[in-house]
Amino acid sequence: MKTLEPPIYYNPDLTQIINGEEIMSPSPKMPHQSASGELFLLLANYVKQNKLGRVFAAPFDVILEQDFNHLQPDIFFVSNANREIMQDWIRGVPDLVIEIVSPGSKKMDMVIKKGVYETYGVPECWLVFPEKVCIEIYNLVDRRYTLSGSYADDDRVRLQVLDTLSFPVNAINE
User: Fold this and answer.
1) Where in this chain does the record put each Putative restriction endonuclease domain (predicted)?
2) Rounded distance, CA 124 to CA 98, Å?
């Protein structure tokens, strides 16, 4: 007896333009959404409590270049100092972007989107791996991303953009 795979539904709200090409993504699965929700709450509460700016979640366009790069990071932070980019969409470079890597999105998140963020000068980029309970943090140094830390399980995440925030990685799976 053959097992049928459920169909993959593509969400038009998750359409991005990456390097001039329109990309439509399927809706995320449970581990992705769970990690996204936990991280969003953690960051949004911290940023709001400290009046540091705003935290946003996909689907919401970050327009880095009109008609060429409209990306939707899973989560991103825009500081008060950078608030002029908060318009109808985000029109410019956020201070921090977070991509939650799913098995089907590895190349897109780890190579293509990370490369675009690096090219446009996003100061900090996180790659979150919910299945491994791991977060890699990249910081821009001389216009190139450098891995500033790889954290797993109960390691405490340390950031540069939000330098007083610290939390254990396993908080993404609560």
Assistant:
1) 16-169
2) 9
Q: 44-49 — which CB contacts under 8 Å span 24+ positions?
A: 46/162, 46/165, 47/77, 47/162
Burial status of residue 166 (CB atoms within 10 A of its CB: 0-12, 13-18, 19 or more): exposed
Residue with tokens 């396993």: 170
Strand pairing report for 124-129 and 69-71: unpaired
The Cα 31–Cα 135 span in angstroms is 14
Which fold would CATH assign to domain 10-173? tt1808, chain A (3.90.1570)
Tokens at 51, concatenated: 């009046």
Helix runs in the chain, H state only: 30-49, 106-107, 114-120
pLDDT tens, residue order, the chain (174 aa): 555 555 544 455 667 777 777 777 767 788 888 999 999 999 999 999 999 999 999 989 999 987 677 889 999 999 999 999 999 999 999 999 999 998 888 888 889 899 999 999 999 999 999 999 999 999 999 999 999 999 999 999 988 899 899 999 999 887
- The tokens of 114 are what? 């990370």
Rounded CA-CA distance 76/74 in Å is 7
Give the list of residues 6+ apart from residue 125 with CB closer than 8 angstroms, or none. 96, 97, 98, 99, 114, 117, 118, 137, 138, 145
